[in-house]
């Protein structure tokens, strides 16, 4: 027996559990497409395959594990009802299928949970309780309510049936694209990667399974190294912002996952914008984590046949707009230029004339005379503008400086 086979026999779930989960959930979840991205493949020097789990009815893979758990409940448990703690996607998947099966559902969500996820969860008929500043606080309170009201607690990740349900993602991916040799999977609590690694390693023991975590919430990454992580801060990938990974999931990840890499907020923003601009698909921060890993660690994936899971698409529209505008600013297509003028007639007209000559669109103009450390007769103006690309912006700045103006580009960090 190989070392891998010996490790698998002692784990909380096995390949047969994932196959059984697929039979249990049947056609009640969408068999989402797994498609090759030609453009992303060219940009990353890899062969990139995308699994569009953001096309599930509730826009996330979480339906799979939640439904598999619900299908295991007996009549008495269904009558009592279920409860869960979730930052959003597990809440929606559980509440949607609970309503479909006639099972009362209560969801405890952290107070910071995106409004879109709260409303969608309530829209599926669940009772939503907002409690705590983090998933961990919400989870502790959900256990308290479960005991008080005699409800069945459905974990978002640390449960064998939930993990097995999530593993059906890998079954579908490797059926549609058997040539995939590397799976890149977001990690929060570890349910998705545990199920997927269990299925993938059985189908192809040589396949690499790489986990991805946000730098601000590197809980699984640290635990695998015997370290502790100071998990805190606002991350775009709030769906995987988990301070403590599951005990069962940790066993599977330690045995079957080849590596865990970290990504920063800027890579998450860039990946999210690329998926919208290139693939015309909306993902949340966690859904962009796989591509963010390829951007942050390009040598790690070059030449590989990489499968990425777009695990969710539930993002607040205001946040999405902000990410896209920031991406435009970083690419030079949007800019704010601070220009020092002389306090005399026609100065702003002369500046606007240069913008016109360079065919740059002016969006906003801000004059500042009072709140400045310039001399009393000094004047600065901030002009927000739209250009074709970074080179176009550079030509504009060069033209302004050539005309004698002091120009500063107020770039994002």
TrEMBL record:
Which EC number(s) does UniProt give?
4.3.1.19
GO BP annotations listed: isoleucine biosynthetic process; L-serine catabolic process; L-threonine catabolic process
Catalysed reaction equations from the record = L-serine = pyruvate + NH4(+)
The record's PROSITE patterns line, in alphabetical order, gives: ACT
Q: Which InterPro entries match?
A: ACT-like_dom_sf, ACT_dom, ACT_ThrD-II-like, Ser/Thr_Dehydratase, Thr_deHydtase_catblc, TrpB-like_PALP, TrpB-like_PALP_sf
This protein's cofactor list reads: pyridoxal 5'-phosphate
All copies of the ACT domain together span 336-413
Q: Which CDD domains match?
A: ACT_ThrD-II-like, Thr-dehyd
Q: Name one GO molecular function term.
A: pyridoxal phosphate binding
User: What keywords are assigned to this protein?
Assistant: Lyase, Pyridoxal phosphate
PANTHER family attached to this UniProt entry: L-THREONINE DEHYDRATASE CATABOLIC TDCB, THREONINE DEHYDRATASE, MITOCHONDRIAL-RELATED
Q: Which family does the similarity line name?
A: Belongs to the serine/threonine dehydratase family.
Q: What is the official name of this protein in its record?
A: Threonine ammonia-lyase
